[in-house]
Amino acid sequence: MYFLLSLHRRGHRHLRHVKHLSTTAHSQLHVPLNHPTFLVWASNTSLGKTLVSTGLAASSLLNPIPKPRKFLYLKPVQTGYPSDSDSSFVFHKLSRLSLLRRHNLPHFSLFSSNHILKASFPAANSVLGQEISETPHSGMRDLGHYEEAKAEGDVGGGAASQLVCKTLYAWREAVSPHLAAERESGVVEDAAVLELLQKCLRFELEGGGEKGKETEIFCVVETAGGVASPGPSGSLQCDLYRPFRLPGVLVGDGRLGGISGTISAYESLKLRGYDIAAVVFEDHGLVNEMPLLSYLRNRVPVLVLPPVPKDLSNDLMEWFDESRGVFDSLKEEMLSAYSKRMMRLQDMPKKAGEIFWWPFTQHQLVPEEAVTVIDSRHGENFAVFKAQNNEFITQQFDACASWWTQGPDTTLQTELARDMGYAAARFGHVMFPENVYEPALECAELLLEGVGKGWASRTYFSDNGSTAIEIALKMAFRKFSYDHGILSDVRKDNTASRRVELMVLALQGSYHGDTLGAMEAQAPSSYTGFLQQPWYTGRGLFLDPPTVYMCNGVWKLSLPEALHLEIPKLENKAFSSRDEIFHKIRDKSDLARNYSSYISEQLLQYSGSGGFYHIGALIMEPVILGAGGMHMIDPLFQRVLVNECRSKKIPVIFDEVFTGFWRLGRETAAELLGCVPDIACFAKLMTGGIIPLAATLATDVIFNSFIGESKLKALLHGHSYSGHAMGCTAAVKSIKWFKDPQTNLNITDEGRSLRELWDEELVQQISSHPAVERVVALGTLFALELRAEGSNAGYASQYASSLLQNLRQDGIYTRPLGNVIYLMCGPCTYPEICSQLLVKLYKRLEDFDQFHQIKEENSESYGG
Amino acid sequence: MYFLLSLHRRGHRHLRHVKHLSTTAHSQLHVPLNHPTFLVWASNTSLGKTLVSTGLAASSLLNPIPKPRKFLYLKPVQTGYPSDSDSSFVFHKLSRLSLLRRHNLPHFSLFSSNHILKASFPAANSVLGQEISETPHSGMRDLGHYEEAKAEGDVGGGAASQLVCKTLYAWREAVSPHLAAERESGVVEDAAVLELLQKCLRFELEGGGEKGKETEIFCVVETAGGVASPGPSGSLQCDLYRPFRLPGVLVGDGRLGGISGTISAYESLKLRGYDIAAVVFEDHGLVNEMPLLSYLRNRVPVLVLPPVPKDLSNDLMEWFDESRGVFDSLKEEMLSAYSKRMMRLQDMPKKAGEIFWWPFTQHQLVPEEAVTVIDSRHGENFAVFKAQNNEFITQQFDACASWWTQGPDTTLQTELARDMGYAAARFGHVMFPENVYEPALECAELLLEGVGKGWASRTYFSDNGSTAIEIALKMAFRKFSYDHGILSDVRKDNTASRRVELMVLALQGSYHGDTLGAMEAQAPSSYTGFLQQPWYTGRGLFLDPPTVYMCNGVWKLSLPEALHLEIPKLENKAFSSRDEIFHKIRDKSDLARNYSSYISEQLLQYSGSGGFYHIGALIMEPVILGAGGMHMIDPLFQRVLVNECRSKKIPVIFDEVFTGFWRLGRETAAELLGCVPDIACFAKLMTGGIIPLAATLATDVIFNSFIGESKLKALLHGHSYSGHAMGCTAAVKSIKWFKDPQTNLNITDEGRSLRELWDEELVQQISSHPAVERVVALGTLFALELRAEGSNAGYASQYASSLLQNLRQDGIYTRPLGNVIYLMCGPCTYPEICSQLLVKLYKRLEDFDQFHQIKEENSESYGG
C-alpha cells in the first residue's frame, strides 16, 4: 500500500501548471507602497498569525491617536470557512476590545467592517444555509457576506477610525488550500488571487482621493498555514505572493522544536527574496528567543508574546491587554522598517547619480528622474519603484535581457536561488587548476556534450566574454604558429618574433569585448578611437559582410560595395522565407562562388610565406553581429569564410558569447550556420544570466599545441574565479533547463529548436512601418533599425529616446544601440508575451512617427 | 514583562562562541566513506526519526542475506535520558523484531549491543540511581552503560550479523540540547561532538582489519529535534555536523502544515551544502507527498510510511511489518545514492584530466593521482576525497586562498550562502547603467567610505582584476591626455593620435592580469613571450625596485643594481623591525633623496613635450608584488614614486586586486604606504572570495574628464555583469564582516589593522633555515623563497614539488610560484591556526633540506 511514488507524470503536470501561471500573470502589476503593508507569515499552522494581526490592529486603532486611522486586514485565502474565518476573528475581537478600551479613549470612534468576497460553492452553501445543489458547481462564487459595527468613546464624535477586514477567497474544508480547492472544484489561479489582492490594496490604500491620502493606513495581508504551504493552485504561498515582494513579519514557534521550524521558515522566505521586519512568537518557557537572536544577529528584532490561554472559552481580552506592549513594539518595528525602505527608495536615484560611474553612459545625459529604481526582478520582469503621486511598484519586461544575459523564468529563478545557496554553502569558491569538483566537471561535460558536441574536447573556464575571447586568440595563434613554422623560427632566432605580426580575419561591425585583446580583433568603431583606448591599433583584416534583413515583410540580401560591384544582379535579392536563407542548397549557388573568390582574393595579400603579416585566426560572431547593430550576416558568406580559412589552416573561432544558448533559437548559432569552429567562446546565457562565467571550448589538436615538458609551454592565462563553483552550478542548471521540454515549453523539433516566438504577421507589419528601415527576428531576438539620417543614425544617436520612454511607460524596458532598438526575451518566454511586446511596440511606432512628422513639419515651416 | 529583546550583548557572546569552535576544530578530519553512512534529519521533533532508523536497521539485518552484516546506529546527542533513549529504542525494537522474524530466517544470527558513552552528571546520577551530589559537578562523565543481546534463527550458527547502537552524549532534561547542557552544566563543544563521532565511525567502519573490510556495513547518525535545532553548544545542528557533510535522509511531516515545514527544512539543509537522498514521512491522509514531489521534481524520492498507532501500549511490531516495503525501498534509495557518489568521486580525476583545460597548468605534468578531488569547502578548509585503501574525506587548509581570493570563516560562509540565495531570488541579475538597486548602491557606498575614503568619489564595476585594470588605464590615459593637451591635438588633427604613444610607469616583476591591456602594463616575463601572447609589446617604463625581506631573523633592504651603484653603503641595510620599514620618518632620509633623483632621471627621457612617448600613468601593486614572486617593495620607494608622478600630473593607479581588503593586514595597502592614488582597482577578497566582482574607484577629477555632451565621450567599457546584484551582495556582507570586531576577532587598533597572525619567533626561525633564501610575513601572507639556482629557480621550477606534496599530506594545500611558496590565510583566521601551519612548514623544510642534501651528495658521489 505504501511505496515509493513515481515522480514523473504527476510532478510534471504540476510543473507546467505553475509555469503557466507565473509567466503570464500580472501584466498590470501595481503594488501600492504609499502606506505600510506587510505579509504575515508563520513557520507552521496554528501559531497565532491572526492573534498577531488582531494585536496590530488594536495597536493601530485603540491607542490615543491625534487623528483617525485605518487598519486594513486582508485574508486572501481562507479554508475551513465558515467555522474558521480569520477576518471575522479580527473583526469581532477588535469590536470587543474597543468596547472594553473605549473608556480610556474619550474621543474615540471606530467603524469596523468584515467582508467575505468569494467562496467555493460548498463554502457558500454552508454559509447561506442552502442545500448543496445536485448539479456540481465548479469555480468560486461571489459571496458578498458583509457585517459592520461602530464603537464610540465616552465623548465620541469626530471622524471615525476604520477597521476594514476582507477575506478574498474561502473554502469549506479545513485542509490545505490546494486540497480544499481541488476537492471543492474551486481552484483559483495565482494570477486571480494576486489580481484581487491588488485590487483590494489599491482601492483601500489609493482610493479616497486627496482626503484619503492624509489618513494613516496600516495594512496586513495574512497568509494561510506555513510559509511554504500550497496556495489554492498548488503553488507554494511564498512563491505565489512573490511578485508583490511585500515585506513580512514571521510568526515563529516557541515550542520544543520551534527554533528549527522558525529558522527554516525564515530561510525559505529569504530564499525567495523577501525582507522580514520582525519575528514574533508565543512564549512556551523554552527561551527560544535566545538562539533565534543569535542566529539573526542584528538583522531582525525578535519579540515574545505571553502564553495564550489554552481554555477555548477564554475571550483573550486579558491576553490582548497583557500583550499590548509587545504589539506596540512590533508595530513600531514595522513602521520603522517601512519608513527606512521608503526613504531609501526615494533617495536612490540621487545617490546613484552621485557615486556610480555607469559604463557606456554619458552621465550628463541622465537626469535624476530618468534613473530606474529596480526593487527586484521576477523572471523576465523588473519590479520598478515609482514615486510619482502615490509611491508604488510597477513591472517592466526586461527587453534588453539585461545586456543579453537573461534566461530565467520565475520557476528557474527560484530554483537557481536555492542552487546558488547550496553551491555557496558547499563550495564557496575553490581553486580550479589540478583540481576537480562536481559543478566544474558536470558543467564541462554538459558543454562538451551540448554546444561542443562533435568537435570540442576541452573546456577552458574564465570570467566573461572578453576573457574567453582573449584566451581563444591565444589558442588560435599558438596553433597557427605551429602549423606555419613560426614557432620554430622563433625558437631558432629570438628576434624572429619581432618580424612576425599575427592578425585576425574578422568582419566589419564585429564586436568581441572591451579588453584590449578582444578590441584589437574588431574593426575600428566608436569604441576604439584614441579617446577611448589609446592602445588600440586594430590587428585584423576586416571584411565588409553581406547582410540579410526583413523590410516590407520580405527578407532581403544586402551586399557590401566591394561585392555589389562584382555581382550587381544579386543586390536586393529577396528570399521566400527565413529558412531559405539558411538552406545549405545555397552552397552550390553562384553567390557562393562569388563569395569564395572575393575572400580568397582578400586573403591572398597575407598568405605569402616569409611575410610580416599573417592571418592567424578567423574570429566571428555567427549569424548576428550584436553590439555592432544587430546585423544578420548572410550565413552563406560565413560558411564560405570558414571553409576558406580551414583550407588554409587558419584556426576558426566562433564568438558565441551573445548567440549561444538559444539566443537565436538554437543552442548554438553554429547549428544555424551548419558548420563547426575549432574554438568557441560562451558566456552570458550560459549561467541562465544570473552570474558571470565564461568558457572557451577547443578541439584536441588545439589543446595539443600546448602540451610539452615545460610549464612555460602551457597556456598561462587564468582568472581568480576560473571554473568557480557557483557559476558552474548555475550553468549546469540552466543548460539543462533550457533544453528540457519539460521545463522549457518552447523546445520543439526533438530538442533542437525553439518554436517561433515572434508572431510572423506582427513582424511583417512592423517591418512595413514607414519609420522602420529593417527588421531582424530570430530566436529570442527581435531588432529593428529606425529610419534615420545624419546624427540621428549611429551609436551615439538619441533619436529613439522618446520611443523608449514611451515603451517604459507601457512596461517594456529597452536599451537602444543608437537608432537600433531591440526586444529580447528568454528561451522560455511564452510567444503570447512576445506578441504583447510587439503590439505595444507597433502602437508606439505610430506615435513616434507622428511625433517626428510633426517635428519635421514644424522645422520645415520654421525653415520656410 | 514581554518586550523586544536587546540583540546586542547576548547575541554577540554566542557568536564568538560559535566562531571559536568552527575555526579551531578538526585539525585531523577523517570521515570514512568506505560504507554508506547517513544523517537522519527531521523537519521537527517527534516525527519518527528513530522509527526510520529502526526500520532501516531491520531492513539491513532482518532480511535473508548472503553473509553477515553490520548496522551501526549512532545518536550523538540525546536529551531526556534515561527516560528517552533512542539508541535503546532501536536496540530493543530490533531485538524484539528479530525474535518475531527469526522463523523465516533459518540461518540467522544477530548480536546486538547498546552503549551510552557519556552523560551529564544529573543524567548519570539518574541512571546509576545515585543521589545528586551536593557539590555541583560540571562537564560530562563517562557513563559506560552497556547492554547486549543475541538472537538466532531456527537453525542458527554461522557468523553473526551485528547491530551496534551508541549514544554519544546524554542529558537528563527533555528539552533542546543547548538548554539541557546549560542547565546541567554539561556543555560540550562542537569539536568534541565531532571528534567522538569520528572516532566511533572510524572504529566501527574502518576497524576489524581485512576481514572487517568485507562486511557490509550500513550506518545512520540520528540528529536531535529539527534540522536547525541547537546542539549542546548552541550551534545549530545543521551547522554542527557540516564539516562531515554526510548525506542525509529527511523525515518530513505528513500533518496539516507539514508540507511547509518539510520544504523549509529541506531548504535549510541545502543552504548548508547537504545532499538529501530521500524524504520520508508518516501518512496522515493529507497526501502531502504530492506537493512535495512537485516541489522536488526528479531530484529526490519521497516515501510515505503508514500511520503510526497512537496507542502508547502498542509495541509497533505490526507497524514495522506493514512498513517493511517502504523501509526496503528507502534503504535501496540510500544505497544507490551512496554508490553513485562513490563511483563519481573515484571517476573524477580521470574525467578531469580528459576534458578540463586547466589554466597555468602543463597537463603533461599532472598525472591522474595528483589531481585533488574537492568534495566541499568549509571556511578555510577543503574537504578532499582520498581513495587510498579505505575511501575517506580529509581536510586541507586552503593555504593558496584559492588564488588569493578567500576570506570566509565557516560562519561567514554560511551567511554568504543565505545571502547568495536571497540575492538570486530577489534580483538574479539586472542591468546596471542608468539604473539603481540596493546591493550595487550599498556596495558603492561601502567602497567609497572604506577603501576609497578621503580620495575616491566614483565606483566603476567590472568582473575581475584584469578588467578593473583595463578600465583604470583608460581612465588615467584620458585624464593625462586632457591635462597634457594631447586630446586637443587629436581633435584638431586626426592623425595626431598616431604620433603619440602613451606608456605606463611600472615596476619590474609587477603583474596586473592576463588580458592584453593589463599585460601591456607589465614588464616582460614568462607570461608575455611570443609563445604566450604574440600581441604583447610591453608599453611601459619598467623600473627595477628596491625590495625588503627577512633573512636570518632580520629585515633587510636589497637595492637593484642601478641604485646599488649609486648608494652602495645602503645595500643590505638592516631594519630593527618591520614597523621601521613603513615609518614615515624615512621620507626625510638620504635614501629617499636618492630614490627621488633616480626616478626623476628615469622620467626625464619621457617628459619632453612634443615627444612620441609619454608616461601617461603610474601603475603599481602597493607594497607586495604578488604573482611576480611575493616581493615586498620598499614602501619608501613607492611613496617617492607617487610623489614624483603627482608632481608631473601623471595619474596614479594602485592595483589592489591582490593587496586590498586586509590581505596585508590593513583594509588597503595604500594605508600601509601612507599615500593615496587617483584610481584604484579591487577584486578578489572584495566579495569575501565567493564570486567574481571588481571595482575601479576614481577621484572626481578623473570622472570629470569623461563628462560632456556626447555619449562618445563617456567611458565606453563594460561587461554584462557590471555591478551584478549577487557580487555586490557578497561584497557588502564581506566588507562589513572583515572590519567589524564583533565578527572578525583579528581586528585591532580601532578597526584599522589585523593583529599579527604569523608568530614572530616562528617566522624568524624559518627565515634562518638554510633552505630558505628570504621570508616575507605581512597580514594574511607568509611567503618564502627557497634557495635555488639555475632551472630550480623561477616560475617554471618544479623544485618545491616534494615539499608541497608533503604539506598536502599534513593537511595544507599550497600552490607555488616556482621556488617561491606561500601560506595565505583569511582576515578572520586565528593566529593559532597560522602557527600550526608554520610549525608544519618548518618540519617539512627540515625533510626537504635533508632530501636535497642527500640528493646533492649522491650526485656529487656519482660525479666523483
Automatic annotation (TrEMBL), chains A, B:
Keyword Transferase listed: yes
InterPro entries listed in its UniProt record: Aminotrans_3 (IPR005814), Aminotrans_3_PPA_site (IPR049704), P-loop_NTPase (IPR027417), PyrdxlP-dep_Trfase (IPR015424), PyrdxlP-dep_Trfase_major (IPR015421), PyrdxlP-dep_Trfase_small (IPR015422)
Membrane-spanning segments: none
Taxonomic superkingdom: Eukaryota
Subcellular location: Mitochondrion
Gene Ontology CC annotations of this record: mitochondrion
GO molecular function, one term: dethiobiotin synthase activity
Keywords in alphabetical order: Aminotransferase, Pyridoxal phosphate, Transferase
Short name of any one Pfam family annotated for the protein: AAA_26
Gene Ontology BP annotations: biotin biosynthetic process
PROSITE patterns linked to this entry: AA_TRANSFER_CLASS_3 (PS00600)
Keyword Secreted on entry: no
Protein name: Bifunctional dethiobiotin synthetase/7,8-diamino-pelargonic acid aminotransferase, mitochondrial
